[in-house]
Amino acid sequence: MDNPSRVELSASGSTVEIVSIPCHFHAKYDALDQLFVPLLSSAQQANDLMGVRGGDEKVALRAASFLAGELLRDKCFSPGRSMMTKASHSYLIDLPGNDFHVEASIFSTVGGKSSLFRVQVKGPIRGDKFAVVDPVTKDTLFFFTRFEADKPGFFARDFLFLAQESRTSPKMSAEGQVALAHGVVELMLGIPVDGKTITVRIQKQAETMSADVKIAATNQSVMSVPLSALGNIAKLVEAISQSLSADASALRPTP
């Protein structure tokens, strides 16, 4: 994979490497939401059909071959013998190790700031929780679940906001972050949106590293924010206001 401290501006598409077989793929998908969930679903299907369990190399090889066959039948994927092609996103699927790993280039604009950086997404194939890691500092930025990944617009909006804010927000003390992570938080905030004030509820469950932002009147979830964002309410209000202004559908009454 690319040096994590560099971002290749000329890179495009995605590469996929399946551990255990000498075959790599390139796909013309530049956005995470185009490939992350479909590829994870295919890996889970291969795992389930072949009954992969930890330590069974022969079964894992059959599952890897099955997954490669599925990609070969998809005209969006082209096989290759090396991973030298520069890509926006690099996927590594390790069926024997139960590992789904992505190194992604992120371009985000939040609060009038533009950022271009790389992150790593790591999680189990047979699981539903994924960690987003800064490849340079090795800090865990935030977590998300398969349920969140399935939400429309998650990677195009919430994921970008979470990644940028968790990289740039001031760090809490270790004790404060641990205490907040273990606790439950519920806040009500008035958010200015196009001359109106919209009341939102911010909820964080125990043992989580992010909080849900919901429209108080409808309980509609509009975005997620990292734990560190709760330490700067003024900046948080500004970010939520921008998100609501950009997503008019979130402000419509529920039928």
Give a structural overview.
Helix content is 30%, strand content 33%. The protein is built from 6 helices and 12 strands. The protein has helices at 32-50, 57-72, 146-149, 154-168, 174-182, 233-246, and strands at residues 14-18, 24-27, 77-80, 89-94, 99-110, 113-123, 129-133, 140-145, 185-193, 196-204, 210-215, 221-226. An 8-stranded mixed β-sheet has the order 3-2-1-4-5-6-7-8. The protein has a 4-stranded antiparallel β-sheet with strand order 9-10-11-12. The longest helix has 19 residues, at 32-50.
Contiguous low-pLDDT stretches (5 residues minimum) are: 1-10, 172-176
Question: What oligomeric state do these chains adopt?
Answer: single chain
User: Biggest β-sheet, characterized?
Assistant: 8 strands, mixed
Going across the major beta sheet, what is the strand order? 3-2-1-4-5-6-7-8
Question: What is the arithmetic mean of pLDDT?
Answer: 77
What percent strand? 25-35%
Structural class: alpha+beta
Helix content: 25-40%
- Total strands: the figure is 12
Measured between the Cα atoms of the first and last residue, the distance is 47 Å
Number of helices: 6
Evaluate the radius of gyration.
Answer: 20 Å
The run of helices and strands is EEHHEEEEEEHHHEEEEH
| Structural shape | elongated
Task: Give short descriptive properties of this protein.
single chain; 255 residues; alpha+beta; 8-stranded mixed sheet; 6 helices
Briefly, what is this?
The chain has six helices and twelve strands. By secondary structure, the protein is of the alpha+beta class.
